[in-house]
Amino acid sequence: MSVVETDALAKSFADESILRDVELSVEEGEVLAVMGPNGVGKSVLFSAIAGSTRPSSGSVSVFGTDPTDRSDTTSFLLQDALCSDRLTGRENLRYFDQLHPAFTDEAWSIVDRLGLTDDLDKRVEDYSGGMTRKLELAIALAIDVPLYLLDEPTAALDLSTIQEVHQLVRERRDAGRTILLSSHQPMDADLADRLAFVADGQVVATDSPEELFEAVPQVCQTRLSSVSALEDVALAGVTYPADGAVRCFRPPGSPSDEASLPDPVALVDRTTYTDLFTYYTRVVPAMDGGTA
Ligand SMILES: Nc1ncnc2c1ncn2[C@@H]1O[C@H](COP(=O)(O)OP(=O)(O)OP(=O)(O)O)[C@@H](O)[C@H]1O
What we know:
The protein has helices at about 40-50, 90-100, 105-115, 130-140, 160-175, 210-215, 275-285, and strands at about 1-15, 15-25, 30-35, 55-60, 75, 145-150, 180-185, 195-200, 200-205, 220, 240, 245-250, 265.
């Protein structure tokens, strides 16, 4: 069953088109990660799904109805501030405890798991970006509802906290909840049952990570100082930094041996999430048609 469904969703601000013809379907019990570079329109898409932004055309449905006022079924972590700056972390948690019927005491253990317990008596206006995000996550994830809509849950977090957030999301998925999240960090792809890549205002590919990896062409790389050696072999002219080197994709049908590559370019054995992210957000849109 589809929990969230968008149909030909488009959004423009003044004359600027941000999203066009977005088709996205989120199935019950899955983690779907919407991946795309900064500024591509992920937050605009999430606001439309949350019902706080009206689409210019097309439609959104959440549990089969209009998304406005779905706080009984959906917990939101959006870019607009969830917490009050003037209150301490503890006061914010108590506020949600009193306000939201589905808020649970698990908030306190989530705060602990995210390493925020010692900062709960500081005002949120004195928090760092990462501390604020931890508090927002504790609030959003402590609300016991069937759907979590998390816009950039791992932004501004350090590596070990990101791993803990992944674990918290997996626990909810394993309990049958549905999670739609967005990210511009390739490592968040590791968390998802399915990925939807957004580029040029559209969803250019949606599938399981395994299927999406399958379609990625051969990757080759060279030293940063030898980037010009990639010019003649880079699919769609796209090169990108990864693992201390610079990489590109080989056009489909290229010979699979290294002998056909200019020196000092070598084939890469294992394709990573950075390769996957770059392929679907930069190379696919640059190729004809724009969809994979
Ligand atoms: N209310 C608004 N009025 C005008 N333009 C807007 C408005 N909201 C968003 N935009 C524009 O829409 C585009 C997409 O913004 P959005 O915040 O959705 O990107 P994003 O993919 O979430 O980026 P990031 O990964 O950096 O958070 C940007 O060019 C932004 O300036």
